[in-house]
Amino acid sequence: MAWNEPGNGGKDPWGNRGKDGPPDLDEVVRKMQQKLGGMFGGKGGGSGDNNRSSQGSFGIGLIALIAFIVWMLSGIYIVEAPERGVVLRFGQYHSTAMPGPHWHLPYPIDKVEIVNVEEIRTAEIGYRSTGVASTNSIPSESLMLTMDENIIDLKIAVQYRVQDAAKYLFNVRNPDIILRQMMESAVRETVGRSKMDFVLTEGRSAIANSTEQLLQSMLDAHDAGLLVTSVNMQDVQPPEQVQSAFADVVKAREDEVRQINQAEAYANDILPKARGQAFRILQEAEAYKSQVVAKAEGDASRFTQVMQEYNKAPAITTERLYLDAMESVYSRSQKVMVDVENGGSNVLYLPLDRMRGSSSNPARLNLDEFSYPNSSNNNSSTSSSASRDDVRSRGGR
User: Which of 6, 146, 284, 320 has its CA 20 to 30 A from that of 356?
Assistant: First the structure.
């Protein structure tokens, strides 16, 4: 039956359903508010106005408490490993937070600026990178004047990082732009102190090192909180209008260097051989000197010994010397001397072909084998023996 039908007694579905029905929702909320109001100093019993006033105060306090907790929690922040947190209190530097979780007084009292101090940043002078392998040249930055009043086109890049986060934020306005301007000033000053040939050839590393030192000194003087890690010269060449002439000069210089290197290589090949040959000649001369001196000393010593023996026995020594001399002479001679005692004109037949190739001592041939046309074998044998005895007897004389 519907609630507005006749006979319902004017009761709606949300009316009081008796003691066994569910409690009224408004009554439950009202009782809970009274209890909470009593906890916060409100009166549990009283008129309806007092209840509503206490309920409003409790709601405002609860909202304020939640807002305060949220506000306090907003001061929690985390600093990553490569970063530093610079804490500002009422806009003024207060402290620097290291990596890890931290808490600061919430805004607007404190504020935290996060700075990455390990990131390597790059500033380019004379060009700008537009892609992987493409660049745009900036002549207003790249054209520089050298000490000998020549113009060169130079492109250079500097890599740096933040050394002190607080100094980086507060000591210099726009530190990255200031570093670029200082870099351009430093490289122009360094190039202005050098000649064109030096910058274009062997002076690239020297120019980069000098520029790095000068730039770092300028940053330290301004207390910018930046540290230069490296300065790299990307390209250096003469202006486009004179590049062809300069290419010829470079080619001639390279030919000169190549010729010098070839000459040095040839010298390095010849000089050791000459030194070795000179050393060998010196060693041979020293050996010959030692040989001659030793032989002379030996001959002198032998002569002295022979002289001593001659003083003791002159005749015997004379005979011995004569025999040694004759033996030495006959050993090198191709002649044979035959002495015939009967004084005849017997013709001695000598086998010359055998004497030439038989031995190195042809004087000592067997005379018994020689034949005499006018004498028998016995006579020839006797004559040859007599001849040998006569040689020895003459040597004795």
Answer: 320
Query: What pLDDT, on a 0 to 100 scale, did the predictor assign at position 23?
Result: 57
Is a pLDDT exceeding 80 seen at residue 109? yes
Map tokens 């000089």 to a residue: 271
Percentage of the chain lying above the pLDDT 70 cut: 69
Least confident range of 51-55, 120-124, 153-157, 181-185: 51-55
- pLDDT surpasses 60 at 363: no
Mean pLDDT is lowest, of 160-174, 194-208, 321-335, for: 321-335
At residue 290, the pLDDT reads 93
Task: Give a three-class secondary structure readout of the chain.
Answer: CCCCCCCCCCCCCCCCCCCCCCCCHHHHHHHHHHHHHHHCCCCCCCCHHHHHHHHHHHHHHHHHHHHHHHHHHCCEEEECCCEEEEEEECCEEEEEECCEEEECCCCCCEEEEEEECCCCEEEEECEEECCCCCEEECHHHHEEECCCCCEEEEEEEEEEEECCHHHHHHCCCCHHHHHHHHHHHHHHHHHHCCCHHHHHCCCHHHHHHHHHHHHHHHHHHCCCCEEEEEEEEEEEECCHHHHHHHHHHHHHHHHHHHHHHHHHHHHHHHHHHHHHHHHHHHHHHHHHHHHHHHHHHHHHHHHHHHHHHHHHCHHHHHHHHHHHHHHHHHHCCCCCCCCCCCCCCCCCCCCHHHHHHCCCCHHHCCHHHCCCCCCCHHHHHHHHHHHHHHHHHHHHC
Report the C-alpha gap between 320 and 395 in whole angstroms: 9
Name the region of 41 (left: φ>0; alpha: ψ -120 to 50; beta: rest): left
- Checking DSSP bridges between strand 151-162 and strand 226-237, what pairing results, if any? antiparallel
pLDDT in tens, 256-310: 999 999 999 999 999 999 999 999 999 999 999 999 999 999 989 988 888 888 8
Neighbours of 184 (CB within 10 A): 20
* Residue 187: closest CA among 238, 145, 150, 129: 145
The C-alpha atoms of residue 61 and residue 67 are separated, in whole angstroms, by 10
Per the model's pLDDT, the better-predicted residue between 61 and 32 turns out to be 61
Rounded CA-CA distance 20/271 in Å is 127
The model's pTM: 0.49
